Amino acid sequence: MRLAPDPTVTPADVSRGKSALVKDAAWASMVGALYGGVILTGFALELGASPWHIGLLAAIPFLAQAAQLPAIALIEHIRQRRKIAIAAVSISRVIICLLALVTLIPDAQTALRALLVAQVCITVFGSVAGCSVNAWMHQLLGGQGLGDLFSRRLFWSTVLASLGALGAGHLVQHWPGSEPLQAYALCFAAAGLVGFISVHYLAQVPEPVMQRTGPREPLLAMLRGPFEDAEFRRVIVFMVAWNFASNLAAPFITVYLLQQLGYGIGTVTTLWIASQVANALTLYLWGRLSDRLSNKAILAVALPAYLGCIVALPFSALPEVHALTLPLLYVIHLAMGGASGGITLATGNLGLKLAPQGRGTSYLGAVGLAGATAGGLAAMAGGGLADWFAARELAVLVQWTAPGGAHHITVLNFRHWEFLFGLSFLCGWYVLHALSRIREGREHSERAVMQEFVAEASRSLVQLSSTDGLRGVLLLPFGRLRDRRLKPR
């Protein structure tokens, strides 16, 4: 297995590398589904985690992005990004496997502390790998036609992640033994092993020799450059605002569903899968729009939709959990998944597109570090606020009084975790303001994006009018997504 940079990278090598990138992302997403997300939160709650612990657990991956600082220096010194990424990812996979041993610790608090330490190690090595891969991809792909490639990566990622989450959630909820921690141990071991499949594909992606744009800059000078660039600084401000607003509430949705609404982990997993399925079904459309219009235009539509879903969560259980609560939650998660697909695609492309060629390491590292710091602080703030809001409630009632008596209708009722959803929605208004200040070429209105989105969706649905059309839609992931060429429009 060759890990040193390739002296020559041909278009055929790039094409094979793109295929390998799709497979790497797909298997890596299954790792996250088997060990992270709902499963990791459920495991922490099983160990007796408090809201502060949940917030800290969610903050660790963001704060671990500080490892990008030494990673940038390491990349510039060694100048072998593939070797650094493969080594760091492999170590993180081994630690994920070792998480299975945490379930053997008899004392729950000791096991919880071990989980937090392991999460720090996993995410630190993941951060080093991510920084290396970002700089690697920035040079290899050149910022052109990224919408289609990233939509394919995200499509297959959501497919395998959904399968992994479904299996893990079913295993934990229906574990035949009396000790559910054994089910979590099996999930962690499987996640680590599956992770090495993604490492295999990542190693097949070609790596061009790093370009030198001038004398080597000191690390602080490299990081100062993106913040001194007035145009790119607007991207950084937007990413900081978005990461803070979203992570003030998003890490606690699982806890809200498990504890406050009282659903089982299997049901919560299916809600997460519903979101991922919607994400996958809309990614192809978002990818085409990203190449045709702009990332900023997509964000102008997807962000308000996502924020609306966040603030809609508390209203699904008014005045208490009822028969329609779960169906409403599925609808909200479907809409949230579709919106988050556009957000993930557009925010990922935005930094790659606006970072100057030859300076991808420092620019992408700076925006990633700034956004991650905001996300980590937001998650910790959310955990602390959740403790404070636990004993508080805000209710708005409408009273109708008539000769036959008085009737009360609850129109708003925020309790505990629901306050975080409201605060996240309010912070989202500044996110939209920060987005409006970014310049990304030609401007497109939200109406134009919606018209194009509906047109793309309609073209896909028209294919259902015949048997051949139906076959084309069903084979979309295997044919149309894989074979569509990447080229700027």
Q: How would you portray this structure in words?
A:
With 489 residues, the chain is mainly alpha-helical. The protein contains 19 helices and two strands. It has helices at residues 11-35, 37-46, 51-63, 68-78, 81-98, 108-141, 146-173, 181-202, 219-228, 230-247, 253-260, 265-292, 295-312, 325-354, 360-389, 418-436, 446-462, 467-474, 480-483; strands spanning 393-402, 405-415. Strands 1-2 form a two-stranded antiparallel ribbon. Helix 10 (230-247) packs parallel to helix 15 (360-389). The two termini are 36 Å apart.
The main pleated sheet reads as: 2 strands, antiparallel
Uncertain stretches of 5 or more adjacent residues? 460-489
Helix- and strand-based class? mainly alpha
Shape annotation: globular
Tell me the number of helical segments per DSSP (H or I, 4 or more residues long). 19
- DSSP helix fraction: over 70%
Radius of gyration: 23 Å
* Mean pLDDT value: 81
Q: What proportion of the residues form beta strands (DSSP E)?
A: under 5%
Strand elements, count? 2
Distance from first to last alpha carbon: 36 Å
| Strand adjacency order, main sheet | 1-2
Series of H and E elements: HHHHHHHHHHHHHHHEEHHHH
Question: Topology of this protein?
Answer:
Blueprint: H1 11-35, H2 37-46, H3 51-63, H4 68-78, H5 81-98, H6 108-141, H7 146-173, H8 181-202, H9 219-228, H10 230-247, H11 253-260, H12 265-292, H13 295-312, H14 325-354, H15 360-389, E1 393-402, E2 405-415, H16 418-436, H17 446-462, H18 467-474, H19 480-483
Antiparallel strand pairs: 1-2
